[in-house]
Design brief:
The protein is of the alpha/beta class. It contains ten helices and eleven strands. Helix 1 runs parallel beside helix 2, helix 2 packs parallel to helix 3 and helix 3 runs parallel beside helix 5. The structure holds S-adenosylmethionine and iron/sulfur cluster (SF4). The site of S-adenosylmethionine has 20 residues, from strand 3, strand 5 and helix 10.
């Protein structure tokens, strides 16, 4: 796989649907016109794309959405992808609502890693943030994933100033108690209402300060993988690790190794890309493997140096987070 600025691309995030069973305010509007089923890539089309990209260097896949578990037959896709030579790691990011009953089947199908998104343990704030109820169901899903043998189970929490500060400590204590890896994600400008402002981002450094003050000291992991977007901070007392995806305060674009395939088959070389490649048209138009491989190479080659969130030049893409695949 060619790379720009010395970034080899081995990580593919595949969105399997733009649908979701909740409506997080930072991700999608209350009313959404979801894509008709026929516009979504089917499992065979996704498998074809991965078969072409694996020999080019893609070896790590994350399934996301929308909410990936609303595609109930997801274990079938996981098994297909796990069987592709060269694919060595398959992960899933889910809101956890449908996870309790699915965890074991996902594991059996070959899923290796799981991240469950949970911003708060407080039912009222859960409802404010997601416009739906269900925090208990998510917790049940997280514990079922642990029970099914996923280790670690990661918990993703979006960090929004003025909203989630009070959740930092309860979430951290919950994760310490259950042996879960907590990861805070700085709020990014991909929301429907264009409500994002830099001032609304609760920065990693501030969360670290809260954790160190209220729970105990943490130190940066010495053997940190420079490619990994998360900065990991183990607690000094050995009580687990907290990660930070500090896309705003500490962008990791220069080591970004990711490509994204949307549910409707568009290849994106950045979360914030303004242009995309229509892979579905290639696949459905009978394109050869070589033509698909060329489109992948061209997409990587046209990747920009980095997002411009922190500059006046930043333009929010039209696609919202749920239809890109976070
Ligand atoms: N529905 C699944 C879930 O929520 O885990 C998968 C898709 S969701 C788009 C993937 C991740 O993106 C979630 O952890 C979610 O919290 C995060 N996310 C969504 N919108 C975001 C935003 N504006 N800023 C930062 N993270 C966001
Ligand atoms: Fe759905 Fe995930 Fe977006 Fe929340 S963040 S609305 S759970 S896709």
């Amino acid at each position: 796989m060619p790379s720009l600025f010395g970034r080899p691309h081995n990580n593919l995030r595949i969105s399997v649907t733009d649908r979701c069973n909740i409506r997080c305010v930072y991700c999608m509007p209350e009313q959404v016109a979801f894509l008709p089923r026929a516009q979504l890539l089917n499992f065979e089309e996704i498998e074809r794309f991965v078969r072409v990209s694996a020999p080019m260097g893609i070896d790590k896949i994350r399934l996301t959405g929308g909410e990936p578990l609303v595609r109930r037959d997801l274990p079938i896709l996981i098994a297909k992808l796990a069987a592709i030579p060269g694919i060595r790691d398959i992960g899933l990011t889910t809101n956890g609502l449908l996870l309790a009953s699915a965890a074991r089947r996902l594991r059996d199908a070959g899923l290796e890693r799981i991240n469950v998104s949970l911003d708060t343990l407080d039912p009222e704030r859960f409802e404010t943030l997601t416009r739906r109820t269900g925090v208990e169901q998510v917790i049940e899903g997280i514990l079922a994933a642990k029970e099914a043998g996923f280790n670690p189970v990661k918990v993703n929490a979006v960090a929004i100033r003025g909203t989630t500060e009070e959740d930092v400590v309860p979430l951290a204590l919950f994760c310490r108690r259950h042996g879960l890896e907590l990861r805070f994600i700085e709020y990014m400008p991909l929301d429907a209402g264009h409500q994002w402002e830099r001032a609304k981002v609760l920065f990693a450094a501030e969360i670290l300060e809260i954790l160190a003050r209220e729970i105990g000291p943490l130190s940066p992991r010495p053997d940190q993988d420079p490619q990994a977007p998360a900065l990991d901070y183990p607690y000094d007392d050995g009580g687990g690790t907290v990660g930070f995806i500090a896309s705003v305060s500490r962008p990791f674009c220069m080591s970004c190794n990711r490509l994204r395939l949307t549910a409707d088959g568009k290849l994106r070389n950045c979360l914030f890309a303004l242009e995309e490649t229509d892979v579905r048209a290639l696949i459905r138009g009978g394109a050869s493997d070589e033509a698909i491989a060329r489109a992948i190479r061209e997409s990587v080659a046209s990747k920009w140096e980095g997002h411009e969130i922190n500059t006046a030049r930043f333009i929010q893409p039209e696609r919202l987070m749920h239809s890109i695949g976070g």
